[in-house]
Each structure stands twice: as C-alpha cells, then as structure tokens.
Predict the structure.
Amino acid sequence: MKLAQLLLLALLMAGCAHHEEQARQTLKPTVYTVNYPLAYFAERLAGDQIEIVFPEMEGDPAFWEPTPEKILEFQNADLILLNGAEYAKWVSSAALPEDRLVNTARGLESQLIALDGSGSHAHASGDAHVHGDVAFTLWLNPELAVHQAKTIYASLSRMVALDDVALIALVADLEKLDADLKEVFQPLEKKPLLGSHPVYQYLAAHYDLNMESVHWEPDSEPDRAMWRELEDILETHKADVMLWEDEPLPSVKKALAQKGIKSVVFNPCGNRPPDGDFLTVMRANVEAVKGL
C-alpha cells in the first residue's frame, strides 16, 4: 500500500511539473518601454505575440521617477526598450539587467544633437528638472524613428517569429508622415519660429527650421523673467509662430497673440495620448502646421 501511494505521488508530481512547463511555454514574453513611441512601434510589430508594457504615468516620461515596485517590474521584464540619447535618466541607477536592455538609438551617435547646457526649470507641479546634454526626442525625425523601429523589430524577432509585413507597414507609415511634414514645413523653412520648450531639435534639424526655444509649460503662466527672455529673443529672431507641446493657457495664448505670435500645438507624443495613437497625434500635428 505504501509503495502504491509513493508511485501515485510521483505521478502527480510529474504531472504538475509537466503542466508548469507547458504554462511557461505558453506565457507571452514581456517587453517594457520607457516611452510611448517605443511602445507604439513594438505593439505594431509584435501584434499579440508579446505583451508590451508602457507603465501609466503623468507628465513627460523623460523625467518620470519610478517607484521601487515599478523598477522591479522593469527588472523582471524579458526585454527593456530604451530610447537612448540620455532619455529617462533613472535607468542608469536602477540596476536593470544589461543583457535585456535594447538601446534603440544605437548606431545614431553621429546624429545626436548636443544641447547648450541650459539650467533647470520647474513645471506647475513645482518639480524642477534639467534637460540633459543631448536632445532626446529622436522620433520627431521620422527617419530616426524608422531606425528605432527596425532596431525594435530585430530585438523582438529574437524572442518570437515576426512577420516582416508589420515592419514594412510601419516603415511605410513613418515615411508617409515624413513626406507630409516636409510638405507642410517647406513654406516655413528659414522662417523664424519659436518652441515653447526645448523638445523640437530633431524636428527643426530634419526640416531645416530656424527655431529658438524658451522653457514655457502649457499649464503655467510665464513669469516676468520668462517674458523678458522672450523679448530678448524677439529682438533678433522675429518669430510670429510658437509651437507648443499642448494647448497653452488662454491668457498666455492671448498675450502672445497681442505680440503677433500665433500658438500652434505640435504634440511630441512622448506619453500615451488619451485618444488615438502615435500616428493620429502626428497627423493632427501635420494638420495644425498646414493651417499656418
């Protein structure tokens, strides 16, 4: 009787081990990203074969400070997609597994744009931050976004079998976006423009825009020093258009209009939009510029 019980226990244990192994084999790989554009590219490329996770967060993901619990989630991911260009500085101190990190800007080193080292500033929340030594909104140049998408495709392909039709379709969409942006920006080439925030460097470089940026937030009233800075810029940079990351306060928009400056929203889409997706936001940007 004892021997029979032992045999039954061994069979049950073997069965459990088999089911656990089957479960492991059927679980989807998990890929975490540090911003929404990377998540969008990965979702387009992987379909439902991989779980793509971009954690919910408020504000600009470039300056997000994850909790220890969120860092642990990243550490446990099968792959972590990084933007590169010194984006998401928390990554450097989070002890993430090096063998699971994918820098989607690798190979673009010669095209990165250095900043002037200007100081920190605060958002309406009161949190101050410094824009790093390198501009990081690479995806605003669709050619660089294509590079990022292809790097993601190569990395995901090592985890699951992907259909290159998805890559071809994504690249086609980004190339169409590039063509549309070239068309609407062509009349603005060399014309003095303003950026409400230093996030448009790759956009300006790619489309040959003559842009000067201030450090204004859409949800904040500029103080006197910020208005004086703008006046100083306007003395030599006679701009009549300012690009904003989001709709500015009505009072600020009105004050700019009184100076002959039109406010136009060109959303970089670093975070997941409340409606639509990366391409719908970029198409809205195209329409906004077309209306100038």
Observations:
- The chain has two domains: 20-175, 177-290.
- Residues 20-175 form a domain with the Rossmann fold fold (CATH 3.40.50.1980).
